[in-house]
Design brief:
Keywords: Hydrolase, Metal-binding, Protease, Zinc. The protein has about 575 residues and is an alpha/beta fold. About 35% of the residues lie in helices and about 20% in strands. The strands form 4 sheets. Strands 1-2-5-3-6-16 form a 6-stranded mixed sheet. It has a 6-stranded mixed sheet with strand order 10-11-9-14-12-13, with helices on one face. A 3-stranded antiparallel sheet has the order 4-18-17. It is globular. Bound molecules: zinc ion. Zinc ion binds next to loops.
């Protein structure tokens, strides 16, 4: 994953508000009895604008936390804890737990001697290592392995009536491409810890450093710290409310065996909507934008739609081809879809607009023109157009489409009878899967009609073409069948205040905590039935962790301690907290 957004660059525009002001001024100049009517009209208009701005407001920035923060060492961690935490991440990286795409098809519970895929076995080693490395956690928490390798750890609460909280992470990683191994500054599974850089930071290198072994290790470190402190104080190790940790082992290949099955167990055990909140990895963290430190919490994630387009035509010798081969028809369809991009939009409840509003309200160095555009609803459509010029920002304000896979033809001199492509769409917050399907159907229908080729899409016959010309068949591809975007986590109320308060306590009261939507997916997709409050967050400053899914994935020791502190403070603040 990784949608680090880069600097926000949008075209300047002139005359903010003029479009609203001018009619009002003209109306004001109108004579006689008309004046009163226009006055009422302008006031109603202004009220609408105010309501939109109110909805788009940056959320309240809570400060001051309720619990005993003295427990987190104010002078920082002891050098032995620091050493321990760094070595744990290093070791986690060295235990290579790569997921390969084709593992999706295999059953991890099947032993290799019975024909199972031996590549899953690394998780047995990894789980053994976790048990040995965090003995306090594994002694005091209930440990369950679901689907053989995915973990559910439970620290039951003293008060079973309080909704539990869920900490999520995953222990698998994406592979390292063979051809890129030489480009790494340190070998990708070495877990090497560098000498301090100019800012005194040690970098920990390797696949999974950021996605997401640093979160996994930090959650275990935080739980260990909480348990150890309670034992040292002679207290019950249990907190007021139950804490559950769910660790998946196949997030990079859909996550259904790990988080998917963990979720079924948790739903069965606790019921729907039973958790106070859930935290997991995210694709955005703590960035600097226009002189502001902003922590973006992923309050939702986009949906997805995999469309499989198949074209079947009569075959034959390539020496006497029709005007369009099957592959040609497939290409025309893809070209037509690309020529009709999904719409983009910004409105008062758009997550990305609300992120921009936080910048407009708090970032000291934002150009005043841009600030005015963000705070003027009349300019939002034009602003959306400007943002859409950037591929990265467009992904935040609409549904995207990418034709990624195509197969056709077996031989140079033979016409391809069967051609197929998979088009991957990430469904935005203003769309449903059905909206996107309908839009694609309209575009493809036009192509099919022009070519006189039969088209059936999404189970409906749309064009009855000339017999023998061929047939286009469009359906959901497997395994990424259609999925709607996740509900949007509220950015007000006690859960928001706890979350945002902890973030500001850990990274500084000058940090603004802003809503954002995730454009990639996480394992939280499976946990949606469990809570309305899901936060996807990479708890790392942008310059302290780099290169998710690519060469030189790395994270600093400081960043690692920050994640541990964030999880720890969330846990200790649960005492006495009520949602
Ligand atoms: Zn991840």
């Amino acid at each position: 994953m990784g949608d680090g957004d880069g600097p926000l660059n949008v075209r300047p525009a002139s005359s903010p508000r003029r479009r609203f002001l001018l009619p009002c001024v003209l109306a004001g100049l109108a004579l006689g009895g008309m004046m009163y009517r226009h006055h009422v009209h302008c006031r109603a208009h202004q009220e609408r604008v105010n309501a939109m701005l109110e909805e788009a407001q940056c959320p309240v920035q809570p400060s001051g936390l309720r619990s005993a923060f003295s427990q987190w060492p104010s002078a920082g961690l002891s050098s032995s804890d620091k050493e321990l935490y760094v070595q744990r991440l290093s070791k986690a990286i060295q235990l290579d737990t790569v997921s390969y795409d084709d593992m999706y098809e295999t059953d991890p519970t099947q032993a290799p001697e019975d024909g199972g895929d031996p590549r899953w076995l690394v998780h047995e080693r990894f789980n053994k290592w976790k048990e040995q490395e965090w003995p306090l956690v594994y002694t005091h928490m209930q440990v369950e392995y679901i689907t053989k390798y995915s973990t559910i750890l439970t620290l039951p609460g003293r008060d079973p009536t309080l909704p539990p909280v869920l900490l999520m992470s995953h222990q698998d990683t994406v592979p390292v491409q063979e051809a890129t191994v030489d480009e790494w500054d340190q070998p990708p599974f070495s877990g090497i810890v560098t000498a301090p850089d100019a800012r005194g930071r040690h970098w920990i290198y390797g696949r999974g450093a950021l996605d997401c072994k640093s979160l996994l290790v930090s959650e275990l470190n935080a739980l260990e710290r909480v348990i150890r402190e309670r034992l040292e104080r002679g207290e019950d190790v249990r907190g007021e409310r139950t804490v559950v940790m769910s660790v998946g082992f196949d997030e990079e290949v859909m996550g259904i065996k790990g988080a998917g099955n963990n979720s079924l167990v948790l739903q069965e055990r606790y019921g729907q909507d039973s958790f106070a909140f859930i935290i997991d990895e995210g694709s955005t963290g703590i960035e600097n934008e226009y002189g502001l430190k902003v922590a973006s919490l992923g309050l939702s994630e986009k949906g997805s739609l995999g469309a499989k387009i198949e074209v079947d035509v009569p075959g034959g010798h390539a020496s006497k081809p029709p005007r369009h081969t099957g592959l040609g028809i497939l290409s025309l369809l893809i070209a037509a879809l690309e020529a009709h991009p999904n719409p983009h939009t910004l409105h008062s409840s758009s997550l990305y607009l609300r992120y921009l509003t936080c910048l407009a309200q708090h970032a000291p160095d934002m150009p005043s023109d841009l600030r005015k555009r963000i705070l003027d609803p009349a300019q939002w459509p034009a602003l959306a157009d400007s943002l859409a010029e950037s591929d990265e920002l467009r992904a935040h304000i609409g549904t995207t489409m990418a034709a990624n896979v195509a197969r056709a033809g077996a031989k140079t001199n033979a016409l391809p009878e069967h051609s197929e492509a998979i088009v991957d769409s990430r469904v935005g917050w203003d769309d449903t899967v059905a909206d996107v399907q309908a839009r694609y159907a309209v575009v493809m229908k036009e192509v099919a009609e022009r070519l006189n080729v039969t088209l059936d899409a999404w189970g409906e016959k749309l064009v009855d073409g000339v017999e023998g010309r061929g047939r286009i068949h469009v359906d959901l591809s497997w395994p990424s069948a259609g999925r709607e975007h996740a509900p949007i986590t509220p950015s007000e109320g006690p859960v928001w205040e706890l979350m945002a308060g902890v973030v500001r306590h850990v990274w500084g009261e000058n940090v603004v905590v802003a809503p954002k939507g995730m454009i990639a997916g996480t394992d939280t997709n499976y946990m949606k039935p469990l809570s309305k409050n899901i936060f996807r967050f990479r708890a790392v400053p942008m310059d302290e962790g780099e290169n998710v899914h690519t060469v030189n994935e790395r994270v600093t020791d400081q960043a690692l301690f920050g994640i541990t502190q964030y999880v720890y403070e969330l846990l200790v603040n649960l005492e006495g907290w009520r949602e």
